[in-house]
Amino acid sequence: MDLDLSTNDKKRRYLDEDGSSEEGSRRQPTTLEEIQRDEDVWLSDGNIVIIGQNVAFRVHKSVLALHSEVFRDLFLVSTPASNPGSLAGPTETIDGCAVIKVPDNPNDLRRLFLVLSCGKNYYFRDDLRQTVPFDVLDSLIRMGHKYCIRSVLCNALSRLQKYYSNDLSTWLDDARRAQYVAAPEPQSAIQTINLLATLTNTPSLLPAAFLTCCSHIEAVITDTPDGPDAPSLSTEDVLRVINGRAALTRAAVDRIVGMTTTGPSKQCHGDYRCTHAGLSALAA
């Protein structure tokens, strides 16, 4: 895992690249009267209000600046005294707090701020491992990458790697993997292929994600996305899934044929027992 958290481009592009997976993520309300205060992240002693779409989050500027160079620089350039034409104009305040608008989906921001500002731990409770919904990991990976928050990104990515493992024995243990991530398939695998593996430069996620799509090939090919931003594989990746499924089928057939046509081992002291064991394995 080679994470590039360089902030040079992100400081210039954060308004144009929100990484949101939901429709309308770039629409912003025209007036503060349209804003809804978030019920989970509205700290009474917060000193900055971050608005995503029409949802406002009141948090501590110093906490965000401590964790994120992108937020730190955003606060600097959005100060009316230094930039009168900034997003947070001199008259835009809520409860005396300066307002900054970002293009991110409020669900993504809420999950990020719950971790940074409210101490939320999605991974453990009372020292017991918790199963994390895939969409939470998706949000934290994208927001952690966008705002250069390494701890958020690495924790979420590490948990996702336990689910889409490139270790065969781990991959085959479905019950154990399900303890780490609750992932509806094949949508989660498709999102991992389309965005998360590339965004984080983590190609080790791809084999398991593609294998998952092979196991849900009918849904991959025939399902119509619920919306314009719903995940769906590219034509090229669909062909990879089809070819991969065909290769797996051929390998399984070759294995079965081999078990029925190969003669007993020289160490075998009873041809009947050897043949019976092979047929029993096929029947199972």
TrEMBL record:
<protein>
    <submittedName>
        <fullName>Beta-glucosidase (EC)</fullName>
        <ecNumber>3.2.1.21</ecNumber>
    </submittedName>
</protein>
<keyword id="KW-0378">Hydrolase</keyword>
<keyword id="KW-0326">Glycosidase</keyword>
<dbReference type="InterPro" id="IPR000210">
    <property type="entry name" value="BTB/POZ_dom"/>
</dbReference>
<dbReference type="Pfam" id="PF00651">
    <property type="entry name" value="BTB"/>
</dbReference>
<feature type="region of interest" description="Disordered">
    <location>
        <begin position="1"/>
        <end position="32"/>
    </location>
</feature>
<dbReference type="InterPro" id="IPR011333">
    <property type="entry name" value="SKP1/BTB/POZ_sf"/>
</dbReference>
<dbReference type="GO" id="GO:0008422">
    <property type="term" value="F:beta-glucosidase activity"/>
</dbReference>
<feature type="domain" description="BTB">
    <location>
        <begin position="44"/>
        <end position="75"/>
    </location>
</feature>
